[in-house]
Amino acid sequence: MTRINISPVTRIEGHAEVRIDLDESGGVETAHFNVVELRGFEKFMIGAAVEEAPRITPRICGICPTSHHVASAMACDQIYGAQIPDTAKYLRELLMHGQYVHSHSLHFFMLAAPDFLIGHDVPPEERNILGLVKKEPEIAKNAIRVRKFGQRLTEAIGGKPIHPSSAIPGGMSHPITENQRKELLEMAEEARKIAEECWILARDILDKTDLSFGAVDTAFMGSTENGRYSVSGGRTKVIDAGGSPITSFSGEEYLNNIEEYSEDWSYLKFSRLKDGQYYRVGPLARLNIVDSMGTPAADAALDEYRDKFGRYVQTTLAYNPARYIEFLASCERAVQILSEPSITSNDVRAEVGSVVNTRGVGIIEAPRGTLIHDYTVNEEGFLENCNLIVATCQNNWAMDRGVENVARKIVSNGNISESGKNQIEMVIRAYDPCISCATHAIGRMPLKWNIVPKRKGFNSTKP
Q: What is the DSSP letter of 349?
């Protein structure tokens, strides 16, 4: 069997490859998105005190640590039966928006934009962030400015720009000062202005989007607060491909609706609905589920997006403009929250005591999609079981099938061009997968051993 390997997949977080197996005529027999990284957070957290989880789990990833931090703290809130103060809720929401601004702007401007603003068929040495700086220096400068705001917001509220530590059982460990509020508000207003002005770039991508590119039809999952977009609250809702509701649930009910499984070609877990339907999460799914974004410029952008794609969107590359609309909404929402002087209140934590519930589930909307932290503890509060379901696992099936969809179109007589390879990568890149977050295994891992004959003169008994 002849195999084409695309390794590594570029401009994503983590390490992955694509394997395309050809039939005798040089056509595509199978194609898969393959990941062989392994991380073991679900196992080595067992035995730790649960209040340590919000400090441990951000180390899963340096790109989306905030989501793990907040989801973990939410699970701890349930275990200790804590009702956190309103100020703490707003600070956690701001913390999330800081990550959205940082993560979404990073992906849109630096990872996805080169394919659209430079061209997917341009040589790879030019089709990158350095090529973007050369061709569109102002866009690159604006990207750096808004990312700086996202990092500063995380640092001020979370204590550190990466791996925040301020979300604790019962709320937040510290408030923000009035000087910090004014500083962050000024930065937020600049970021909002840039986001509004650069929407024209994202809107231009709408007209360059191939509706059949990497096509899959799925259901969708995301959280909403009474139909409005939300990054840190509400119920989780599932709709089918046509927008009809399938179910909605709170965090602790997710096992009644979702099942995980594995395939032998990847260490990434897969997720699907209990009835066997496949679904997607993240920006595309959330925009399909919500009725509105809740902020003026993002709502106007959402209207344009739906004029192009329709009310319920399946198009894979639509993830890119959908992600931008969320970035815009986060900039606007940060301005709204920081405009309220009451955000500096010292009432940021409820007192917690002993364990009230031996299970807690934190469910939140991470930039890449729905994130679930499920902890079971003993009566002393030490972890006995830990399950994490991340967005990349939930999008894994769609990425895998999208890869094969494009491969069948562009592989001819056993040949694939450099541009064709990048088009396959673009399918994966649209989902902005976070491989570090997603590399967990169920049961026996599909390891393969290669036995190599001993080389002459090599003494295997010596260290």
A: B
d(CA 50, CA 383): 6
Annotated binding-site members for Ni(2+): 61, 64, 434
Annotation: binding site: 42, 61, 64, 388, 434, 437, 440
Q: Looking at domain 2-438, which of 1.10.645.10, 3.90.1200.10, 1.10.1200.10, 3.40.50.11740 is its CATH number?
A: 1.10.645.10
Q: Any idea where the domains of the chain sit in the sequence?
A: 2-438
Instruction: Compute CA 271 distance to the chain's CA centroid, rounded to the nearest angstrom.
Output: 15
40 CA to centre of own chain = 19
**CA-wise closest residue to 100 among 152, 143, 150, 161:** 150
Exposed / middle / buried, residue 292 (Cβ in 10 Å: 0-12, 13-18, 19+): middle
pLDDT along the chain (463 residues), means of 10: 88 87 92 81 92 94 91 97 97 97 92 84 84 87 93 96 95 97 98 95 78 88 95 91 95 93 86 96 98 97 95 94 97 98 97 96 96 96 95 95 93 90 91 76 47 49 39
Picking from 15, 24, 79, 59, the residue whose alpha carbon sits closest to that of residue 384 is 79
C-beta neighbour count of 460 within 10 angstroms? 6
Q: Indicate the annotated binding residues for Mg(2+).
A: 42, 388, 440
CB within 8 Å of 263: residues ≥ 6 apart:
270
Residue 138 sits at φ, ψ, to 5 deg, of -70, -35
pTM here is 0.91
Q: Which two tokens stand for residue 319?
A: 């993830």
Share in percent of the chain as helix, strand, coil (round to 5): 45, 20, 35
Residues belonging to the binding site for Fe cation are: 64, 437
Q: Collapse the DSSP code of 126 into the 3-class scheme (helix H, G, I; strand E, B; otherwise coil) and give the result.
A: coil
